[in-house]
């Protein structure tokens, strides 16, 4: 009886100690689970383990060195703190450290998201490609070419070609943003643009290539110049103007084309308010003698522009050589295929030149290479069909172009990879027709000029 009376207080004190220990354990577990919730919100995997299992430097204990070290120090403080210390002081320290870690992670994630949103990959081009294919279906808004086109022509104004693109356009990066983006290198292959080229408003597949180039190089002035803009809705610059907000100057000396284009840009919601205030259409006949004055007086531009496209089917080479008032970062030219990859040939310059047939048009790829390489440009490829070539200025990307295009120069023969037996016969026939026209080597003409020799006309 006496022994039982003596045991009763001891059992009571033991039960009370167990209760206190259990309450403290539950409190600690609750706090640690709360920390795990913070960790999940920060996008980190759960790492909670029983406290004693986390203290040793076991494999995996340093998967997040900064956080785990804070946690270990705080838990040690909790276990080894003197009795007078607040029992949850260390856990509060854990919470504060974890909240700070969470905020840092969130700010880093936000900055990364902003960078990622400015970077355009090949995959980002595909939704835009599909949207273009769905909306811009042939025929175009040809009704705009009639004399009574405009507000009176309701059917023309309802054309999908005059509506904003259903797919929101890509946000092309600036030059600074593009420098921070990882480069998207091109394959070193003859038809290297095959995976990016597509048609939106260009005549062939130039739109996709231009969007790729502007994605990896970034946009600068957001200005473009098109020499021979056609009917307005089918050229290499229209997509940049309508869907990306570029300013542009278009030249076309044909009166019918001018009517179509002015009605088109005047009716399209993306350009109606920008006519002669960012979007210009000139019907002037461009020559070597007037090209610089026309550009400067019409737009006030000088210095860098992003894109130049030349396709006048005649003395293209000489207009490109004469253009000095602006410096395009990207140049698109149409080449005369019949001369192959190595022959330097162009039609001699005449201010009133007219080409009666395809065999009398333009200049060879080698002639353009000779001209543009001397001005600091690099041939980077052609459309799959070969006859439109792309040159990029060497300083268009900080650090040079090698990160995107490789150190090895593109082989101009790749622009003729599409020539099979059937197309070879077409080019051979064109060559026979071209024999009756005058052709000159621009390098030889330049040498004669330097020597002061008379150049035959």
Q: Can you describe what's shown?
A:
This protein is an alpha/beta fold. The chain has two domains: 12-115, no CATH class; 123-450, Rossmann fold. It contains 16 helices and seven strands. α9 (238-244) links the parallel β1 (223-227) and β2 (247-251). The longest helix has 40 residues, at 2-41. It is elongated.
Question: Ends: how far apart?
Answer: 136 Å
Mean pLDDT: 80
- Percentage beta strand: 5-15%
Number of domains: 2
Radius of gyration, in Å, reads 34 Å
Protein structure class = alpha/beta
Task: Describe what is shown at a glance.
With 457 residues, the protein is of the alpha/beta class. 44% of the residues lie in helices and 9% in strands.
Secondary structure elements and pairings:
Layout: H1 2-41, H2 51-54, H3 65-80, H4 89-118, H5 122-135, H6 154-157, H7 175-180, H8 206-217, E1 223-227, H9 238-244, E2 247-251, H10 255-267, E3 279-282, H11 291-299, E4 303-310, H12 316-322, E5 326-334, H13 365-374, E6 377-382, E7 388-393, H14 402-405, H15 421-434, H16 442-450
Parallel strand pairs: 1-2, 1-4, 2-3, 4-5
Antiparallel strand pairs: 5-7, 6-7
Helix pairs in contact: 1-4, 3-4
Q: Can you tag this structure with a few keywords?
A:
457 residues, Rossmann fold, alpha/beta, seven-stranded mixed β-sheet
């Amino acid at each position: 009886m006496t022994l039982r009376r003596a045991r009763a207080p001891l059992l009571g004190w033991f039960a009370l100690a167990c209760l206190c220990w259990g309450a403290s354990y539950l409190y600690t577990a609750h706090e640690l689970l709360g920390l795990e919730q913070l960790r999940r919100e920060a996008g980190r995997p759960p790492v909670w383990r029983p406290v004693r299992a986390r203290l040793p430097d076991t494999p995996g204990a340093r998967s997040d060195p900064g956080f785990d070290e804070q946690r270990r120090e705080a838990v040690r403080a909790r276990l080894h703190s003197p009795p007078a210390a607040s029992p949850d002081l260390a856990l509060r320290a854990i919470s504060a450290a974890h909240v700070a870690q969470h905020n840092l992670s969130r700010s880093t994630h936000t900055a990364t998201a902003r960078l990622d949103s400015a970077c355009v990959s090949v995959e980002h081009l595909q939704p835009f490609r599909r949207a273009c294919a769905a909306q811009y279906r042939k025929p175009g808004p040809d009704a705009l070419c009639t004399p009574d086109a405009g507000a009176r022509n309701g059917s023309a104004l309802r054309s999908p070609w005059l509506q904003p693109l259903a797919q929101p356009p890509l946000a092309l990066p600036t030059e600074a943003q593009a420098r921070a983006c990882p480069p998207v290198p091109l394959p070193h292959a003859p038809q290297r643009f095959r995976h990016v080229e597509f048609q939106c408003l260009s005549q062939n597949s130039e739109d996709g290539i231009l969007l790729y180039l502007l994605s990896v190089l970034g946009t600068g002035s957001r200005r473009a110049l098109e020499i021979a803009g056609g009917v307005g809705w089918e050229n290499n610059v229209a997509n940049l103007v309508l869907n990306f907000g570029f300013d542009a100057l278009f030249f076309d000396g044909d009166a019918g084309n001018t009517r179509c284009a002015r009605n088109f840009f005047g009716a399209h919601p993306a350009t109606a308010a920008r006519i002669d205030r960012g979007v210009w259409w000139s019907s002037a006949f461009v020559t070597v003698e007037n090209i610089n004055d026309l550009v400067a007086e019409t737009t006030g531009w000088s210095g860098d522009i992003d894109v130049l496209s030349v396709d006048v089917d005649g003395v293209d080479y000489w207009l490109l050589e004469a253009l000095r008032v602006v410096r395009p970062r990207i140049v698109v030219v149409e080449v005369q295929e019949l001369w192959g990859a190595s022959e330097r040939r162009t039609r001699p310059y005449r201010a009133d030149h007219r080409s009666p047939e395809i065999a009398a048009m333009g200049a060879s790829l080698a002639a353009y290479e000779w001209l543009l390489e001397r001005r600091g440009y690099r041939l980077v490829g052609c459309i799959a069909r070969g006859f439109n070539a792309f040159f990029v200025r060497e300083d268009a990307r900080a650090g040079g172009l090698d990160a995107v295009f490789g150190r090895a120069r593109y082989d101009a023969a790749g622009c003729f990879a599409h020539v099979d037996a059937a197309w070879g016969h077409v080019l051979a026939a064109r060559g026979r027709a071209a024999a009756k026209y005058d052709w000159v080597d621009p390098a030889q003409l330049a040498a004669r000029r330097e020597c002061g020799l008379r150049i035959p006309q």
